[in-house]
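Journal club prep — side note

Before the paper discussion, L.F. wants everyone to see what a predicted structure for a comparable chain looks like in token form. Sequence:
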Amino acid sequence: MGFSIAPPFWWAQEFKPSKEKLIGVELWMFKSDSPPSGVKITVSIRDSLNGNDLTVATVNADPISASGTWVLFDFKDISVTPENTYYIVCRSSGGSGSNIYCWFFNRYNSYDRGIAWMSINNGSTWDDLENYDPNYPQIDFCFKTFNSKSKTKPFIFNSNILDCLFERFPNTLKMIRQLLGF
């Protein structure tokens, strides 16, 4: 499941880094129906939801698949303070109705070092998604962050990424369990 990334909707995930550098993030995203070609998705890092962008990256969303794609936002390296709170803020340049891109989320506080946020007015005001909808309690978005050593070794990983996959594709869990023998 995921939330629509289309103006005026912005989404954010609060997180606490464990290293002093941040060089990129990956978000697990998917497309719904037929978004227009050329939509740009922008991700920034902030130290407060209404603060300035500490760094920002924009990608063309066209390669994002309907089944889900890890999308890398590779930005200028920044120094962060371990254990301080930061925000991954995500927005897009287009899409409407069901022809949009979405950011996968998981329920039941799968990432216990921060909560998810939403803005329905292009980031002017924010509401937390912790208990926003009883059908989707304690939401966290699916993400990875990377430090200055390698973009292939995350230092924060949403530990229940597989839950997101299994909610969207329930038969996948059965196949993986059979392959791994558990």
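L.F.'s comment for the group: Helices lie at 161-168, 170-180. Keep this in mind when we get to the figures.
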